[in-house]
Amino acid sequence: MQTYPAERITTGYSWTECPRWHDGSFYFSDMYNRRVMRVAEDGTAEVFLDLSGREGLDGQDVVLIGTGFLPDGRLLVNSMHERVVLVYDGAEVGLYADLRQVATGPINDMVVDAHGRAYVTQLGFELFQGESPKESYIIVVEPDGSSRDLIEAGAVMGANGIALSADGATLVTAEAFANRITAFDLSPDRVVTGRRVFAEVTELPDGMCLDAEGAAWVAQPTGAGAIRILDGGDVVAKVTVPAEEAGNSVACVLGGPDRRSLYLCCGFEVFDAGKSRCEGQGSIWRAAVPVTAGEARP
């Protein structure tokens, strides 16, 4: 198995999540600081979107997590506990999709396809209130903002990271509370069929991405990095971080000019938002890997 050590490129955040590479820049959610950050190649970071002044719907806390970019360049971002998808055009923020009638728990990650269709994952239960895991559906948000449960794909156990293959024909998600990666076939008209197990894993799978060869990079919170796993379950490579400096490894994406750099989000405290904000130990790490993401999403 090949091993690639990562270097820390920026730190000082709350809980870092949902890394993205878009239009030559790297983005991630500074979750409990209610921000989406943009980072240059040299590690210089700037605030791309700041929602620290937003009042949450129904009195819910505003926690920014999954992001994606529409074909016209607008940013979508999930507000976890509000259970809504927000849209940002670079100047104004608006409500894109209200998922309160379909989501059975906090919403999580997302991936946006080339047509502007967003696939949104959800925990399916109130993890932060101590509830036990239960199955729920992936949620589809159409380009017009309408949403529905992806019932034809079947229920999943805590869908977390989610990705699309380079040819757009395969949708893959990490079932965090089942320790498996699950794949679905997508027809050209975006009908979802062919559910199957992509891989079983020994540790909880969190955020993930795919590369151009169809292999998955999967972050494992207790695994001090991310593994590259082939369809079928063979683990062939790992990006490593020092656990004492990085904490938990929670999400990853392939980026850089040739999309051969694996960016990894790491942090120390997810269940105490105040402590996470105060201590500012969230960080981003990066390692060069041999296989590009190509046209895979996110």
TrEMBL record:
<comment type="similarity">
    <text>Belongs to the SMP-30/CGR1 family.</text>
</comment>
<dbReference type="Pfam" id="PF08450">
    <property type="entry name" value="SGL"/>
</dbReference>
<protein>
    <submittedName>
        <fullName>Sugar lactone lactonase YvrE</fullName>
    </submittedName>
</protein>
<keyword id="KW-0378">Hydrolase</keyword>
<dbReference type="GO" id="GO:0016787">
    <property type="term" value="F:hydrolase activity"/>
</dbReference>
<dbReference type="InterPro" id="IPR011042">
    <property type="entry name" value="6-blade_b-propeller_TolB-like"/>
</dbReference>
<feature type="domain" description="SMP-30/Gluconolactonase/LRE-like region">
    <location>
        <begin position="15"/>
        <end position="264"/>
    </location>
</feature>
<dbReference type="InterPro" id="IPR051262">
    <property type="entry name" value="SMP-30/CGR1_Lactonase"/>
</dbReference>
<dbReference type="InterPro" id="IPR013658">
    <property type="entry name" value="SGL"/>
</dbReference>
